[in-house]
What does this fold into?
Amino acid sequence: MDAKVISIIAASVAVSIGSIGPALGEGRSVAAAMDAIARQPEAAGTISRTLFVGLAMIETMAIYCLVIALILLFANPYA
Amino acid sequence: MTPASPLASAVVFHLGAVRVTRPVVTTWAIMAVLALGSWSVTRRLRAEPARGQALLELLVTGIEGQIEEVVRRQARPLLPLLGTLFIFLLTANVCGILPGVQAPTGRLETPAALALVVFLSVHWYGVRGRGLRGYLGSFARPKLIMLPLNVLSEITRTFSLMVRLFGNIMSGEFLIALVLALAGLFVPIPLMALELLVGVVQAYIFSVLATVFIGAAASEDS
It folds into this structure.
């Protein structure tokens, strides 16, 4: 296999495996925020703002994988 | 058919030796629209507001209230920077929906410049908030051994601010281009609606994170 084929496989592996962790993390945090809002509906504004910022932080990990995949596909230093 | 590489941007014209790319031109257009719009709305302010002024007041007091909730202090000194940042990001993220316009935040250089602005203003407001000694001392907290980690986290969080905005906007555009190439003319419309939502949320998140970073650098108790 030449470097190009390996890069394409590596890009798809990076995105598919790299999105598992953030997906689990985001699911847990949304579930916890739902629970908190159900217990304390008057704090919904603060909770959802914190939730959005936290989701953005978690999502960054998946975006890192995406950027690495794009570098492999479009700006590959080896192929 | 493969879409154009999202890591390169098209050169529109040359200004001497400087290559002016398409995101830069779009950014100039957005700046002109925002500046002219703000100028024309604020030219005749009255005590009982007309429609445009009421909208403007709603926006400004809304942003001020949001900043105040995060930093828990007077929001007035931070309002020009963060308010402008939010309005610019909102326009830049959403303008990709216009035909023929590419969102400038979907290319690496615009998010990089914005993240650099946030990085520098964190230090500026930190030094202004608690003095040079106090601010530099805050890097050695809670123990001196945390110093390298604190410096590293300054760099990585700026980097992640940049990559988050770039990745979200660019991946949306990329996805729309791919679906358009594979499926046809009207298929990507739901994706474009989703991309509008993502643009607004990312503008909000970028501004909130900038507020959190600046507020944490400027306050004594962090």
